[in-house]
Amino acid sequence: MLPRIGMVCSTLVAEDRPPRFVINQAYSRAIAAAGGVPLLMPALADDQPLRGLFDAIDGLLLPGGADLQPSTYGESPHPLLGAVDPPLDDAELRLARWALEEEKPVLGICRGQQCLNVAAGGGLIQDIASQVPSALVHRVEPRSAIAHSVRVVEPESRLGEILGPGELPVNSLHHQAVGAIAPGFEVVAVASDGVVEGIERPGHPFALAVQFHPEELVPGHAASERLLRRFVLAAAARAS
Ligand code: MN
User: Fold this and answer.
1) What separation in Å is there between the alpha carbon of 108 and the centre of ligand 1?
2) Ligand 1 centre distance from Cα of residue 48 (Å)
3) What are the residues whose beta carbon lies below 5 Å from ligand 1 (ion)?
4) What is the β-pairing status of strands 37-41 and 4-8?
5) What is the distance in A from the centroid of ligand 1 to the CA of 212?
6) Which CATH number fits the domain that encloses residue 218?
7) Ligand 1 center–CA 147 separation, angstroms
């Protein structure tokens, strides 16, 4: 059986419609192309059904999305904090902690990297442009455009080995970043302005995250293809 990769949908509230759960199609397409079965999950508030979702998946994908509420990492809101999605924070932080504690493979992408770091007790930079001196431009459209390079600083790590040596050109669609790194995690990749672009928890079978969007770069971006494929393989190993 192919490994099942779960991802939580965001909340969409539009004036003329009831609230809906939504997620970019690119995540499902990329996971399917990497050999996994994507499963879209609702952001449930109750523990028991959320746990049921967690038990039904072999790997957890934490996708991009809204800013995390600063209260989740002990800060008050910066003036340039973007939109937040409290039900999503609540569900994803619980799922991420279960994945870390129970050694289920987890891959964070963009907000997902920030979510994984916060779930493990780390902090965030709430707005790069106003809080990081001489920062690069980290929000560049279209979503597949190469915005800047990242450089691996821990080549012996799993993520470092996947991304490879040298400068790796990536896309960039974020205005927040990892700040204080969570206990038990290490910074694996950075941009030239020092912004964290990859983290990993050593000792966990597969707890990796990147700040760029590999799902928007496949097919054709070899490092992104390797990253998604390795995540699905880790989930397959867990499933068997
Ligand atoms: Mn970036």
Assistant:
1) 14
2) 36
3) 138, 172
4) parallel
5) 6
6) 3.40.50.880
7) 7
- Domain of residue 119, residue span: 4-239
- The tokens of 22 are what? 């939504």
Kindly tell me the burial class for residue 42, based on how many C-beta atoms sit within 10 Å of its own C-beta (0-12, 13-18, 19 or more): middle
CA distance 221 to 170: 9
Torsion angle in degrees (nearest 10) through CA of 17, 20, 25, 27: 160
pLDDT at 239: 85
Retrieve residue 116's tokens. 């994984």
Residue 208, classed as helix, strand or coil, is strand
Per the structure, the count of domains in the chain is 1
**Mean pLDDT computed over 184-213:** 98
Q: What is 113-178 written as a DSSP string? A: HHHHHHHTT--EES-HHHHSTTPPP-B-SSTTS--EEEEES-TTSHHHHHH-SSEEEE--B-S-EE
Q: Residue 106: what pLDDT?
A: 98
Is the whole model's pTM more than 0.85, yes or no?
yes
Tell me which residues are annotated as active site: 110, 213, 215
Q: Output the CA 53–ligand 1 centroid distance in Å.
A: 31
Taking only the tens place, the pLDDT of each residue in 14-66 is: 889 999 999 999 999 999 999 999 999 999 999 999 999 999 999 999 999 99
